[in-house]
Amino acid sequence: ALVSAQDPADGWMAYAVGKIPSNYERITHLEMSWQVSNDPTRTDAFYSPWFGMDPSDNLNLIQPVNPWLGSGWVGYTEYFQWRPTHNSNSRQVPVQAGQTLHGVLDYDSSSDSYTLTQTVVGGASSSQVVKCQNGKKYNLPYVVYEKVWPCRDYPSDGKVVFTNITAECDGVDCTKDIQWSAKVKDANCNMAAHINDDGTISITWDTSAASRYDNWTRAELFDRNYKGWATNKALGLQRPVEEKTA
Predict the structure, then answer these.
(1) How far apart are CA 41 and CA 10, in angstroms?
(2) pLDDT value at residue 156
(3) What is the mean pLDDT, run by run of 10 residues, along the chain of 246 residues?
(4) What per-residue confidence (pLDDT) applies to 241?
(5) What's the Rg (C-alpha) of the chain?
(6) What is d(CA 150, CA 137) in angstroms, rounded to the nearest whole number?
C-alpha cells in the first residue's frame, strides 16, 4: 500500500496535535521542556520523543529532537521538508538521563523564518534558522514519540512529560487557547499521549507489553526505522549484521 508522504509520518506512535483558534494566522512562538528518560537496556535501538510544528499541509516539520542513538541521548533541531525533499540539522549536543531539555521555535517576521533551538538546561545549546517555504504559515503543533521497536527497547521509566508549554499566536499568548487531542498512528507498546489538567502533555508506554516487532531481526528493525531524522549521517547509525537462522 502507498503511504502518503507527509506528517503524521510512518513510525509516529503516540502523539498529541494542537488546534489554534481560527482568528490566528500562525504560531509565532512555541517552547517546551522535558526531562530526558533513563538509559534503555538494549543498545542498538534508536527513537526519539520531540515536539514540533507544521504548516496546515503537514509538509514542513520543524522540531527540537531528543534521540536515543544506541549508546547515549543527544539533543539537536531538525527541519524536514517533504516536497522537494530537504533535511537540515543543527549540531548534536550530548545530554544525560535526568537532565532537562528546553526547546524553542521562534518566528521572525522580517525574514519569514523560525529559529529552532534545543538547549540542555545548564549546558550546551544547538540551533538553526529555517526559512518558511513559499510563505507557509505554521499552525499545527505536535508532541510525538517516534520509531517502532520491541517494548523492552524503550526506557524503563515508561513516561516522558513535556512541561512549561508556552505558545504565542500572532505574537499573543495563546497557550491556553490551543485545543490538544491525543492520537495514535502506529500502535505499539501501549504508547499513549495524555493531555493533562496541569497544562503538561505526557507520553507513556509499557516496556513489558508484547509488540508486533518482537520477532523481527535487528537488521529488519533498523530498515523499518531508518527514515526521517534517523538518516542524518552525523548520527552514525549502523545497520546490524543480519542474524542467521538455523
Answers:
(1) 25
(2) 96
(3) 76 98 98 97 90 98 97 96 95 98 98 98 98 98 98 97 98 98 98 98 98 96 94 91 62
(4) 86
(5) 17
(6) 37
CA 223 to centroid of chain Cα atoms:
19
For 208-214, which contacts have Cβ atoms below 8 Å and span 24 or more sequence positions?
Answer: 208/151, 208/152, 209/151, 210/151, 211/148, 211/149, 211/150, 211/151, 212/188, 213/148, 213/149, 213/150, 213/188, 214/150
| Among 40, 8, 28, CA closest to 146 | 8
